[in-house]
Amino acid sequence: MCDVVVPEVVLSTGERMPLIGMGGAASPLPPLDVLTSIFLEAIEAGYRHFDTAASYGSEEALGRAIAKALERGLVKIRSDIFITTKLWCTDAHPGLVLPALKKSLQRLGLEYVDLYLIHFPARLKEGNEGWFDIKGKILPFDMKGTWEAMEECSKLGLAKSIGVSNFGAKKLSQILMHAAIPPAVNQVEMNVGWQQEKLRAYCREKGIHVSAWSPLGANGASWGSLAVVESPVLKEIAIARGKTVAQVALRWIYERGASAIVKSFNKERMKENLHILDWGLSQEDSDKIKLQIPQKRGCPCYTFISEDGPYKSLDELWDGDA
Hints:
By secondary structure, this protein is an alpha/beta fold. The protein is 36% helix and 16% strand. It contains eleven helices and twelve strands. The strands form three sheets. It has an eight-stranded parallel barrel, surrounded by five helices. Strand 1 and strand 2 form a beta hairpin. The longest helix is centred in the first third of the chain and has 14 residues. It starts with 7 loop residues before the first strand and ends in a 5-residue tail after the last helix.
C-alpha cells in the first residue's frame, strides 16, 4: 500500500480536494487496458485525485481503474478518490452541458464527479475534439448560459463542485457577476516558467482555488517548453536539496497554495512526484525562482485567434496576460 498521504484543500463548496493530482491526458493515448493499469499503479502509489476530460479519451480507463481499486480494497469507498473531468468546447452551450456530463459519467461508470470544469472559454462546431485545425469552426460562446447549466449539474448532485479552466481574471469576473454558485477552481497553465502572479492574486481574493496544469512545462509535448526541466536555477536548487528538478518545481507550486496536476506514466517518477511534502524551499530558493526564471506562456493557443472569431488577439483570449 502507499506510504504517502497527500494534503487536501477545502474548496469554496466545502469539498476536500487533494493538492496533487494525476493527469489523464497523453498523446498518443495508451491502449485501454494499459492505461487502466497505469491508473491502478497511481492509486497504489498514493494518488487520490485524478484529472481527465471528455477530450482526453481517458475517462473509460480511469473508471475501470477506480472499479478495480474498489474491488481490490486499494480504496475503501468511492469518496476516497477525487475525480475531475471537463466539458469540451463542442458542448460549451447551455443545452449541451448536462448531456455531456451524463456521457462522461457513463464512460467513467460513476454517479457523480467531484469537480466538473469548463475546459476552455470557447465553443467549437460539433466534431472538433482537439485543439488544432479549428480555423473557421469557432462559434459564439454563451458564457452566462453555459455557467447556469454548470450550476444545474451541481444542483442535481452530478458534480460536487464546478469550476473553469484557462479563464483569465476578466472572464472570471463576468461569471462572478451573475453566478449563483461561484467557480470553485480555475485550472490554468502554471509553473516556475509561467507563474501567474496576477491571476493567482485575483483568484485568492475571490476564493477560487488555482490548480496548475503543465506544472513541469510539458516538455516533450508539441506545445510545451523545456523552461522548467532545463532551468539552471531549478537544477542548482535540486542539487543543493538532494531532490529532482521535478520535485523542486512541484514543491514551488505546493508552497504557492495551488494544486498540481502531474502526468507521468512512469511508475518511479509517479512516486517521486508525490515526495514533495516533508521538506521545503528556503526564502532564497523562492526568491531565485521568482526573479531569475524568464516568464513565457508555454501554450498560447494561437489556434483560437481569428479575425472572425470572438478572440482577435492573445490579449483578448488571455485577458491581457498573454
